[in-house]
Request: fold
Amino acid sequence: MKHNKTIVLVLVILGCAICYSQSVNPNLVPWQSLSTSDNMMAPILNPAALGVGNSDGLGWMQLWDENKWKDHYLLFLNQEGVSYTYEKITDRINTHMLSTGGELTGPYMIPNLYTGTSYKWTNNKYKKGGFRSGVLYRPADFASLAFTWDNGYKAVPSYQIGLGYRPFAQIPIIKQHRFELTADFVYSKNSLNDYELYQPTIGASAELLDGLKLGGSYNLENENLMLNFSLSHFNSQIGSIAHSSESNDYGMSYVFLSEKSFLPLAGLKSKQWYDLPVKQQVVTYKAPKYKVGPFKIFDDKQTSIESILDNIKKATKDPNVSGIVFINKNFSASMALKQEIIAELKIFKATGKQIVFYFDNVSNGDYIFAASVADKIYLNPMGTIDLKGIAINSPYIKDALEKLGIDVYNFRSHPYKTAGNMFSETEMTPEERAEYELILSSLYTQICDMIQEGRGAKLSKPIASIIDEGPYYIADDALKAGLVDELVYEAQFKEKMKKEFKSNTIIKNLPEYQTYTWSHNKKTKVAIIYAQGNIVMGKGEVGQKIAHATTVDIIRKARKNPEYKGIILRVDSGGGSAQASDIIHQELQLAKTENKKLVIVSMSGVAGSGGYYISCNADHIVADPATITGSIGVIGLAFNAENMFRKLHVNWSTVKKGSHSDFGSLSRKWTDDEKSIMQKMINTTYHDFVQKVATGRKKDYAVIDAIAMGKIWTGEQAIKNGLIDELGGLKEATAKMKELAKIKGDVELVQVTEGDKSMEISVSMGSLSLAIPGMSILKSVEDYVRIYDEWSEFGSEKTLYFSPVDLDAISKF
Reply:
C-alpha cells in the first residue's frame, strides 16, 4: 500500500512539471542559491556543499518541452563528499564532472566551514576542462555565506557570491518552516573586457510543511524567473522547476534517491515502533574474546552500553518512532548499567513516546528493568516471572583444600577485606555477612523503588510483599498481583500493538536523517579510556583485563596529545594487583600535573578496591546508584602444601644461606617471623592506599580510614560518605567534564582504548565452546572455575587491592 501511494505521488509531481513546462534551453539556469545548494545539485552549484552530507545519493534530472521529454538529462552519483555528474546535451555533446567537498577543519577549530572543487570537461577532452572551486560558511542557523570561482580552459576567471538568510531560525515556534531569503551576485568580465558586478538574483523558498518545499528566484540582470517545488518522502525527493524569460521558457523534473531520510511529509508520522537491539549480555566495553593473528573474535551475544544508549537517543529524536518494543529481551547486565539504560528510556518517554514489553518468560532482573519504564507489560499465558529479590551465594573451599593437604594464609588489612575468605574459611564470617547485608539492603531498596515508580498504581499490594510471594510460575498469579497488564501469546501481542497503539510497523534499524540546521556547535575532544576487568601487571587485551603496561601506554598517549582537553576513565573493575593499580594511579596523576588535563571517572558496575584506587585521584567521580565501590583495603594470600606433599610421599630437602631465603616455599609452613613480615607489608600498603584516597578526595586520613577497612558500598551509599561526587552514568560524567573544563560548544568523546585495528569477526561463543574439549565439564563446576580465573592472573604478587570475587553475583542480575 505504501509503495502504491509513493508511485501515485511521483506521477502527480511529474504531471505538474509537464503542465507548466514550455520551450527548452540547453543552457540550464540554476534555480538555487550557492548558499543553500547542499542537496543533489551541490556538485554543480557549489561543490563545497558536498561536505554538509545532504547530497549523498542518486539523482536524475531531465528537460521537458512542447509536451515531450527532451533527450537532455543529468545523472548525479554523490557519495560521502565525492561526486560524478554526467550531462547529455545532444547526441554529440556530453559533459563529465568530478567533484569533492568537505568540512575544512572539521568541527574542532572553525566549524561549519566547507570547501570543495569540481572539474568538468566535454566529451573526451578531459585535458581541456575547467575548475569550479567553492567555499560555504554557516556561522549560525540563520546565516549561510558562499563563494565560488570558475577557472575554465583558457578562460578568464569569474566569481560568484551567495548569501542566505533564515529570518525565523531563532523563533522556536516557526523555525521548522525553514523560510529562506537568498541573493546571488556574479562578478565577471563584460563585453568590454572589464570586470563588472552584475545585478543579483534574489530568491525565496519555504518548507512550510516538512517535505513540501516551494520557492522561486528572479534574476534582475537578465529578468529570468524560476519557480520550483518538491516533495520529499522517506528516502526520495521529486520536484520540478519552471524557467521563464522573454526569450525562452522550459521546465525540468528530477528525482533524487537519498541515502538519508527526509522528515515525514507534512508531519504525517508513520507510527513505527522500534525493536531496540539488545543482545544477551550488556557490557561496559565490548572486548574481543580471542585474538588470532590479524583477527579479533568477538562474542556476538554481547552489546556495549554505549550502542544501546545511542540507539535510544536516535529513537527519541526520530519523528517516525512512536515507541520502543522489547520482545523476549532477557539480557544480563550489572544493575548499574541497567540504571543508565532506564535513565535514557525515561527521557524517551518524556517526549510522549511509549515503551512496551512482551515476555514468554522473564528473569528477575529483566522484570525489574521492564517494570521501571514500561507503559504495558504482556506475558505469555503459560509464562513465568522469576521475581524473587536478590541473594548472595559464595563457595568456601577451606575444607576441600585441607583434604588435599593445603593450608591457606589469608593476610588482611581488616576483617572486612574478605576477598580471600573463600580459601581460608568454611563459611561467611560475621564481617562478611554484615557487608553483604548492607549492600543488599541498598540494592533491594533501589529495586523496590524502581518497580514502585513504574507500576505502583497497578500493584495489588506493597511491592515488598509481592516480591516475598515470588517467583510467579503461574501467569494468572502475576496478572492478579499487577505485575503484568495482560496475558497474550506473541501472535496476539502483535495484533494488540496494531489495535491499541496504532502500530503498523516494527522496525529493527533507525534511519539517518537529512541535516536541516545550518550550523553545529564547535566540538572539543575528550579522550575516553575504558578500564574493564582485573588489574594485572604486564600487557593484555584491552577490555579483558586492565594490564598496567597496556593501560599506562593508552593514558600516556592521551595525556600528551594536545587535541584532548581531558580524560574520562570509565571503570568496571573489582581490582587486582596493588602494584599495577599504583602505576596506573601515578600515570593519571601525571595527566593532571604535567599535562594539566582534567580527569573524570565514570564508574560502571564495579569500581572496588584497585578499581577505586585508580579512580580516587580524579577531579570528579560519577557512579550509578547500584555501582559497587569502596573496598579500600589490602589482602595477601599464600599457600602451604607441606601436608599434601607428605600425603603424596614427596620429600623435600633444603640447603640455604639466609634465614628467609626460602620465604614463601610451598614445601614448609611459614614461621611467625615470616607472617609478621607479610602482615607489616599489608598494613603499610593499606596506609598508603588510605593516604592516596585522602589526598585525592581532599579529606583527612581519619575520615577515609573510618569508611575504608575493606568495606564495600553502593554508589547510593558512597555519595553520602564522600567516596564519589555525583550519581549518574557516562552522560553525567561528560556534562561535568564540559563544566569543569569550561568547554564551549559540544564535547566529542574520542575512544582511545583500542590498539591495533585488526579485522573483527563476531561468532557465537556458545557454538565455539562446544568445540573446546572439556568445556561442558567445566560448566558443572562453574564456581570453582570462576575462582581459578579470578586468582590465577596474579602469580606470586604479595599484596592485592581486590574486592570480594562474588561481587559479580551481586552486580549481575
